[in-house]
Amino acid sequence: MPTDIVRLHSVFDLAMRVGEGLLTNGAAASEVTASVLRIISSSGLRDVVVEVTFNQVSLSYLPDDYSTPFTRIRATGSRVQDFARLAAFEEVTELYIMGVVGLEEALAKVRTIPQQKSHYPRWLAFLGFAVMGGAAAFSFGGTILVVLTATLASGALVALTEIMAARQIPMFFGQAAGGFIGVAVAVMLHVAAPAQNSAIVVVACIIVLLAGLASIGAMQDAVTGWYVTASARILETLMLTVGIVVGVRLGLLLTILLGMNISVDASPPLSLASGVAAAVAGAVMGLGFAVGTYTPVRVLGWMSLVASVSAVVVYLLSHFVVDRVWGSAAAAFVVGTMAVLIARRVRAPALAMIMGGIIPLVPGSRIYRGLLSLSEDISAGAAELFAAAEIAVAIAAGAVLGQLLASRFLSRRGGAGWAYTPVVSTPFQTPRRRRLTLPHRRRRDAGMVEPSTMTGEMSALPPSVLHDLQQELDLEDPTSGPGGADAPDGARRSDALTQEDR
C-alpha cells in the first residue's frame, strides 16, 4: 500500500477517535467538528468534509475531480461520564496541533485512552455521587438523619443504575428504578422517624439522577443551528427525565396506598447561615460530582469552587433580585464564563466544570412538587413541572451564552490552549467553507500561530503547506520540516491565505 494512503488512514483514524471520545462525553457538535478539523488541517489535508450526528462521526475527502472519494464512518458507543478520558483526548489534540507530538505518537496515545484504568476505583465514584446526594439534602435544610439517608439512597441508586447498564438494560428503566428507590427510602425514613422531612431524600435523589444529562450540549446544538444532533439529544434527555418521573410516580402511588404524606416543607428561612450552607453544599455537590465522573485530581478544587459560586449566586439573586428562572440563568452564565476561563488555565475540559457547576441549580424540588400535585390538582402539578422546565432551559441557555462570550474573548487574545476552549458556532463542515464566511485578519507577529481556518480555531500548518497552491494533499508530519516543532518560532506562522481564499 502506498505510504501516502497509509498516512491518510492514520490521520483519519486519529481524528475520528478524538471525535468519538468528545461526542460520547457530551461535547457539542460544533466542538467535535472543530476538533476533528483542527487535527486534519494540522496534518496538511484540505477540503475534508466532517459530519457529526448524535452517535456518528463521518469524514469524506476528495483530492480532485478524478479521484475516488475517501470516506470513513465511525459510530460511537453509549454515553459515558469519564472526564479524565475526555481530558486525555483534549490533551492529545492540543499536543498534536501544536506540533509537540507526531502523528504516530498521537495515534498511539489516543488508542490507549479507552483502555486506560479508571482514574478512581468504582467504589470511590459511587461514594462521590452518594456525597453529592447528601449535600443536596443539606442544601434544603435536612437534618443529620435526613442527610445520611439521602447519602445512602443516592449511592444505592447510582450502583443500581450502573449494574443495570452493565447488563445492557436500557437507561430509561435504570432512571425509573432510581426514582423509585428514592421514594422507597423516603417512605422507610418516614416510618422510622415521622418528624423528619423525608421528602428531601426524594429531591436529593432526583438531583443525582438528573446530574450529567446532556442538556447543556443539547441546548448548545439547538441554539447554534445543529438541529439534527440537538433533536436527538433533547429527546434522549427528555426520555431519561420521563424515566425518573415514572419511577417517582410509582413510588408516590405506594405512599398513597400506605396513607402517607411526604410533601416538601417550606424552604429554609433566609439568613446568613442558610447562605453559608448553600455555599458549602454547592462546593460539596461539585466535589462529589467531580469524583463520580472520574475528573482528574488537579481539577477537583476548581469544580468545587465553580459549583459553590453558582449556588451562592442563585441563592442571592433568587431571594433579593429576580425570580428563580432568571437567577438560575444568571448563575449558569457565571458558570459558563468561569468554566471556559479556568479550563484554559488549568488545561482541563470546560464541559466538566460546567456540568459540575450547574448541579446546585437543578430544580429537583419543583419537579417533585409537580409530581406530588398531579394526583390532587393536575393544573397545579403541570404548572410546577412547567416552571421546572423553564429553569432547565434557563440553565442551559445561560451556560451556553457564558461559553460563547468567554471563548470569543479568549480567541481574540490568542495563545495556546485551543483544544480546551469550547467552540460555540453555527454549522460548518470544512475549514475553507467556514473561512469564506469570516473576515480575514492577518497578523504578522513572529512566534505566534494565527487563525487560518475557523473563528477561534487555530491551525498548526507549516507555511509550505499553506503556500503550495498546486498540492491538494500534503501528508508531511507537522513535527518535521521547516514549520514543525523544531523550527524557530518565527517560522511557525500559519496566517497566510491561499490565492483561492482571496
TrEMBL record:
UniProt biased composition (Basic and acidic residues): 489-502
Domain Threonine/serine exporter-like N-terminal intervals: 13-253
Main subcellular localisation: membrane
GO molecular function: transmembrane transporter activity
Domain Threonine/Serine exporter ThrE intervals: 281-403
Listed Basic residues bias regions: 431-444
Record membrane topology: Multi-pass membrane protein
Keywords: Cell membrane, Membrane, Transmembrane, Transmembrane helix
Pfam family, one: ThrE
Keyword Chloroplast applies: no
GO terms for cellular component: plasma membrane
Spans annotated as Disordered: 430-502
Family matches, as InterPro entries: ThrE-like_N, ThrE_2, ThrE_Dicarb/AminoAcid_Exp
GO BP terms: succinate transport
The organism's place on the tree of life at top rank: Bacteria
Protein localization: Cell membrane
Transmembrane segments: 144-165, 172-193, 199-218, 238-260, 272-292, 299-318, 324-343, 350-368, 380-406
Family: Belongs to the ThrE exporter (TC 2.A.79) family.
Protein name (database record): Threonine/serine exporter family protein
Organism: Brachybacterium endophyticum
